[in-house]
Amino acid sequence: xxxxxxxxxxxxxxxxxxxxxxxxxxxxxxxxxxxxxxxxxxxxxxxxxxxxxxxxxxxxxxxxxxxxxxxxxxxxxxxxxxxxxxxxxxxxxxxxxxxxxxxxxxxxxxxxxxxxxxxxxxxxxxxxxxxxxxxxxxxxxxxxxxxxxxxxxxxxxxxxxxxxxxxxxxxxxxxxxxxxxxxxxxxxxxxxxxxxxxxxxxxxxxxxxxxxxxxxxxxxxxxxxxxxxxxxxxxxxxxxxxxxxxxxxxxxxxxxxxxxxxxxxxxxxxxxxxxxxxxxxxxxxxxxxxxxxxxxxxxxxxxxxxxxxxxxxxxxxxxxxxxxxxxxxxxxxxxxxxxxxxxxxxxxxxxxxxxxxxxxxxxxxxxxxxxxxxxxxxxxxxxxxxxxxxxxxxxxxxxxxxxxxxxxxxxxxxxxxxxxxxxxxxxxxxxxxxxxxxxxxxxxxxxxxxxxxxxxxxxxxxxxxxxxxxxxxxxxxxxxxxxxxxxxxxxxxxxxxxxxxxxxxxxxxxxxxxxxxxxxxxxxxxxxxxxxxxxxxxxxxxxxxxxxxxxxxxxxxxxxxxxxxxxxxxxxxxxxxxxxxxxxxxxxx
Length: 589
What we know:
Elements: H1 3-15, H2 23-35, H3 40-53, H4 61-75, H5 78-90, H6 103-106, H7 167-170, E1 178-182, E2 202-204, H8 220-242, E3 253-265, E4 276-279, H9 282-285, E5 289-291, E6 300-302, E7 307-314, E8 321-325, E9 343-349, H10 361-373, E10 377-381, H11 390-393, H12 402-416, E11 422-426, E12 452-455, E13 459-463, E14 466-470, H13 475-482, E15 484-486, H14 492-503, H15 520-526, E16 535-537, E17 545-549, E18 552-556, E19 566-572, E20 582-588
Helix pairs in contact: 1-3, 8-15
C-alpha cells in the first residue's frame, strides 16, 4: 500500500468532510484505485455522487464493495463496444474503403473531372440547423440561401440587410399605451421625460467581474466549498441577527431547537411538500441532510438552494418538525453620496427582434423615443443577438458573423444615442457573442465613448447617489417554476423578487436552471449584494410589473421583442427617499 497514494486519498476525502477509513478499508480502496486507474481526486468525486444516489452510503467495506460492483458493471460494457468497432475497422483492407464517397469530389466544381459518377451516390445536403455552440458561440459562416437575395432590405441600419420586416411586430396593438405605473409618493404624473442635458457619471461596483475568466473547469470539490462557504456566511449572519446558536440538523432533540441549512429535494424531480430536506453545513452538521415535515408551518415559501433558519423539534434525528421559520437578515442600508438632481432613466431588455424576423424594428422605435426625449440614462439589457432566435440558430444572418452582427448593433445604437445621454449595455448569457457563464463579464467590444458603459451580468451601478442592481438572467421565471408555497393572499411576483433580497444574491436557486451555467467560486465573489439596492431591475418572461419590495423599487420591464413589447421610463427625484420619490411607467413599444 503506497503511502503517497494513501495520503492523497486522505486529503481528497477530507475536502468532503469524510473521516479517514480504517486500515482494512483503506487497503481495499488503494487497490481499487490502482487496479482501475482512478485518481484520488476522481475517486472522491465519484464516491460522493455514488453515496448520495444510494441513500448516503458510509465509506466502509460494504459500501466500497457496492461501489466496486457499480464500476465493474460500467467497465464491463465497454470492451464489447470497442471489439465491435475494431471488427468493423479491421474488415477494411484499404483506407479508401472507409469512405462512401470520393473525398476530392467534395472540393471540386460541377464541371470538374473529379466529379465522377461515384460521387453521386449520396448528394451533399445542407445542414437542417446550425446550432450555436454554448462554449465558443462562434459558428462557421452559413451557406448562402437563394432566398436571401430576394428579401426586402429595411431602411433601419440596425437590421441585417437580409432581414425582412416582421409581420408580428407590424400587427401589434396599443403602441405607446401605459400598461403599469408606480407612484407610491403621490407625485404628479411625469409628462416631460427629458434629462438635465449634462452627461451623468455611471460607476460600477468594485465587487463585479472585471475581466473574462476560464470557466467550465470547476471541480466538484471547488463547487462544494463555494456552496458550503455561502451557507456558513448566511448561517453566521442569521446567528448574530437572532442572537442564537444553531444545532446539528440531524441531532435528536426532544425540545425546541434551532437549525440552519439549505433547502434541497430528496429526488431528481421537482420540489414538493413531501420531498423537502434540509442540508446542514460541514461546520455544524457535517453536511448531513434531514427530511422536513412541513405540516406544522402555517405559511412558507421554499425553493431549492434557499438558506433558512428554522425552529422545531427532531425527536428521532431522522425528521425535523419545524414550527417556525426565522425571519431573514435584512440587507444593510447603503453608505454613499447623495444625488443633487433628478435622474431620468429609460430601460429595455432583449431580445430586440420578433421571432419571425431579424428586423430590429422594436429597437429602432425605442431609439427614436430616446432621440426625441433625451433621458439621462438608457439601459439596454441583452440579448442583442439571441441564441434562441430561429434564424440565429441556423446562423442565417446574411454575410456577417454573429460577432460582427453584435458589434454592428452596439455601434449603430451608440450613433443614435444623444451625446448627453449615458448608454449602459448589460451582457446576457443568451447573447451569441458573449461568454456563456454566470457571473458573466461585460461584452468584449472594441468600442469606447464617453457616454458608453459596458456592464457585466449581474451588476450594480451608482448613478447620482442611486444604487441600481441589474441582472439580465431570468431568475424570476426560474424561481417561479421551482418554488413551493403555502401563503394565502400573498403577492407572488413580489415574493419571488423578495427571495433575492432575503438571500442577499442575484441567483439563489440551486441547482440552477438548465440554461444557466453558474460558476460557483466566482459567484460567491461577484454575485452577492453588498448593500440594499435602491432599484432592482429583473427582466423576465413573467408579466411586467413595478413593485415596492422591502423598500426597493423592483422593475420587470418585460421583453421588447416579445409580443407587444414593453420598456420602462423612470424618474427618481430624491436618492434618499427612493420609494416615495420615484415615478415609473411601463410602456408598450
